[in-house]
Amino acid sequence: MTDTVKATTEKATEFFADIRVKATEAAEKGKKMAADAVEFNKANVEAMIEAGKIVAKGAQDMGKTNMDYAKKNFEEVQVAVKEMTAVKSPTDFVKLQGELARKGFDTAVAQGSKNTEAMVKLVSDMFQPISNRIAATTEFFKKAA
Fold first, then answer.
1. Quick one: average pLDDT of 78-92?
2. Is the dihedral of CA 5, 7, 10, 14 positive or negative?
3. Three-state secondary structure along 37-62?
4. What are the C-alpha distances in Å from 46 to residues 38, 75, 125?
5. pLDDT tens-digit readout, 95-115
6. CB under 8 Å, gap of 24 or more: what pairs does 43-49 form?
7. What's the predicted TM-score (pTM) here?
8. What 8-state DSSP symbol labels residue 4?
């Protein structure tokens, strides 16, 4: 019976040693995954901050461009008013008014097009850091699986 007890004790010792090794390995793996998750989330926050910086800079640039446009437009209106006050006949007045309206429309369309292009570029630039994080997320979960 002592041999049976001794064999059972040895088997139990081996079993619990094996469990301890596996538990230690699992704990280490869990610690590493937790550390990786912290770094991963930190990178996500950094990507959002970068996207915010891009938006702020883009909005500032667009605001400056629109202020420059408004200033130029104001100067052109002053010139147009001077031209209209110098007109001598109703026919010339109507002709000048039509030219100014066409020029104003063309300028507005061109500026609108520039604003649209700038907005599309800004949105694309803003989403680039986020898109990079989505790719990193996909890789992260592929490795975890």
1. 90
2. negative
3. HHHHHHHHHHHHHHHHHHHHHHHHHH
4. 12, 44, 15
5. 999 999 999 999 999 999 999
6. 43/133, 43/136, 44/133, 47/129, 47/130, 47/132, 47/133, 48/129, 48/130
7. 0.65
8. H
